[in-house]
Amino acid sequence: MNQDTNQGSFHRGFLFLANKEYIKDFHTLSYKSGNAGQFTATLRVMHETEKVEKIIFYAMLEGEGTLLEFSVAGVKKVHHLVDVPRHGEVDFIFTFEDLPPGNHIIYLMTEDYLNPFYIEEECKGHIGFFYFAIEVENANKKRLSNHVELFEYNGNTCQNDKGVKITLFKDKKMKKLLESVCSGSYYYLAINNPNDFEYDANLSVLVNYELNQLGKMTIPQSSKVVFPIILSEELLEDKQSILFLLIGKPIKEPNEYGFPERIRFISKRLEVFRLY
Known about the structure:
single chain, mainly beta, Immunoglobulin-like, 2 domains
């Protein structure tokens, strides 16, 4: 599977390739693990840009509140940095090990790496968001699929494929988009769901590059709802940046999906502001 964007003379593309032994059916993009719960794939990053870019790559297992560890060139960590040349491509080969038995959804994310000690007021960048289902040894589910998308982020509003609009506001009147955060203040996540089914959603934050869950929510069908958010001083202590991440799963999955489509909201990376 692949995805690319073009901006004038600039081009960024991603290609996701699983090793042959982990592909059940190439045409349906069905995956399985090895006998020990391992899975190896390649993320090929292709650029035609003005300068070398550094991206950060991390992964999550749906339903878990922590980042997944995975190995690159024998080094096992929860996130890895990749230098991408101005004109060319780089293959990023990674391996998950000891995945738990069952049927799982794995989320892979890349974003332009920003020095956590220097966040521009109007930072822009690109996020790659991938998810796929995998049958780990002894699982029962047979049919698997995946989804991939790449998008530019330069604000804190998002329109998903199924018409769900999600916006992050600074004020209760919902007139100002959120540009920075500080502890003890309320912020507001507004969600417009025009569909005739509900979503179960998880809201998390990447504080610097550490994942923290804020909570779970239900997004009612055919509704406009606002969820208040408050960030604790402990969460933001000694941190420089934050990114909000919401992923929602249809409670009643539409029949036309061989694989249940997720909705997602990923904010731009925001500066942590301190009053002292």
